[in-house]
Amino acid sequence: MGARLRGLGSLAALAMLAACGRIIPEGGRPPGMIPAPAPAPASALIAGVAPGKGMGALNLSRYDAGDALASFTESCPRLTARDDTSGLTRKEDWRPACQAAATWNRDDAARFFATYFETAVVGDGAAFATGYYEPEIAGVRARQPGYDVPVYALPPDLTRGWYDDMPVAERSGQPPLGRYDAQGRFVPYFERAEIEQGALEGKGLEIAWAADPVEFFFLQIQGSGRLRGPDGTVLRIGYAGQNGREYAGIGSLMRQRGLIGSEPGQYSGSMQGIMQYLREHPEEGRALMRENKSWVFFRELTGDGPLGALNVPVRPQSSVAADPKFVPLGAPVFLDVDNPLASGLWIAQDTGGAIKGANRFDTFWGAGEEAQEVAGGMSTRGQAVLLLPKGTLRRLGAE
User: Fold this and answer.
1) What pTM does this model have?
2) Per CATH, the architecture of 134-300 is what?
3) Contact 143/206 with Cβ under 8 angstroms?
4) Assign residue 227 a region: left if phi > 0, alpha if psi is -120 to 50, beta otherwise?
5) Half-sphere exposure (CA, 13 Å, Cβ side) for 199?
6) Checking DSSP bridges between strand 149-152 and strand 206-210, what pairing results, if any?
7) What strand order describes the sheet that includes 159-160?
8) pLDDT of 71-101, one tens digit each?
């Protein structure tokens, strides 16, 4: 059990009081149930950066700092090689900390962060954090009775292009995802309903088969997970891409239609409540899920954990998803929020389609029922502080 869940007991109920959310975009996890917030400044520098409270005021615990140091060390090869799209740091800024992290004693991790980092606040620092987890559902590699939901690999005909009716003057940036039809026209890719009705059958794209369409729907929202067969064998799958079609959060749709709430006959807005509705109303539930036209494709993972946007494993209770326009991926983030389970030091190692804007975070809780329970109920607010290499604020003129 990780540092945050030591003595979970009474705190689990607290975590379940909040409405659940979920999530990733191309290159990270798929988009999820929490809708993207209103448009925000396009980068950390535009939002504004200021010094945060001193490192000593964070009161890092031994366990919290130790777990964060381990995740930070795993991120270092990427931190020192990739460009920071937030504009806050440069590759070379991270090298002193990364060189020291390789041999630093985890029991003394709090001193490591105090030695190499300074605190910074982006915008007003007002944070909103949800949770995600690695689901485990019934699934097998080869189709057998009771396992009829296909898990598709990325199709070779999924590509980018411009629609014929789009004026050349409007063709800027990255072209949309789609496919070329038999007449050579670029068209939108198959949506969820078309795929469920067999649009990809016979193409040899099935890498596995799941037993339950509702559970697989939520695994797609999470973006990675485990398939456990009746013989106990486990196949880990991870996000490979998305069909480029419109995402609709079914939690938001249910709330708009009065299906979610505290009145008699309404369902809880948590992930568990939404799943209950889908099971108790199979026809309406299938139609509701198909309003989310997005479909996620998978690949088999062979490492010891699901991979985040940095292409390193995300770790339970240590990894957090953030918007890379506001947080350097690989950077430590300290959350001081209402839910004590989410408070503490995290490492930004992932992204998410709904994780947009300054101080928007998604905490990772691992796999299993306990992780599902905590992540499904995680919705908390407070303050966020970034840990940046010492000297960054002076270079940016933000001191």
Assistant:
1) 0.72
2) Beta Barrel (2.40)
3) yes
4) beta
5) 15
6) antiparallel
7) 159-160, 177-180, 186-187
8) 999 999 999 999 999 999 999 999 999 999 9
